[in-house]
Amino acid sequence: MSDTDDLTLDEIRALLAPILPRHAAFDGWRPQAVAMAAQEQGIDGDVARLAFADGAVGMIDAWFASIDAAMLDALPAEQLSALSIRRRILALVEARLDLLAPDREALRRALAVLAMPGNVVHAGKLGWRAADAMWRAVGDTATDLNHYTKRMTLSAVYASTLLVFVNDESDDHADSRAFLARRVEDVMRFEKAKAKFRNAGGGERLSFARFIGRLRYPAI
Questions:
Q1: Could you read off the pLDDT of 164-187 as tens digits, one per residue?
Q2: Where in the numbering of this chain does the COQ9 C-terminal domain appear (predicted)?
Q3: Domains of the chain, residue spans
Q4: Which of 10, 93, 125, 181 has the most CB within a 10 Å radius?
């Protein structure tokens, strides 16, 4: 009996998730990528297929979850605490880009899968999950409407940055990092404006939909 024989399906997903993109880059987000990753880790192929019975979206979901975890490992709370809020957000998104960089072709294919009409809702959930992980790492404890607006704005920033990143051929992805810095600056200005309106009794009267539109479709 091997060390992997007693793993649960969830444990197998977690084990194979970081390996899947290197195979998906060539085979696409298809069963072949699962089979290759399973072979690499000594996992029975039939069991691996069960672990990813939810298909391409499930494979991508598992990979992105592994990126969430690796991001937190790369930037522990004590390291982030020395930074400003703006720098924390930048550092977290940049850490994600660094983790994704070796697998940009797999990421390009993943974004194409998630852009399909039947997968848009799940794609939104993955973006929300990434933004939630980042805001929690920053130390955000908001429970009011701010909890939702912060995550929606950051998920829009992250999504638009990924679209630049997958086609960025600049040194050390400098164009993506510059794009990200501009978008995060937009978020910080929006948060300051919200605070000003609240203090003046304006509540949440800013046009959130208009702001999100600017983040998702900005001029590069």
A1: 999 999 999 999 999 999 999 887
A2: 123-191
A3: 85-216
A4: 93
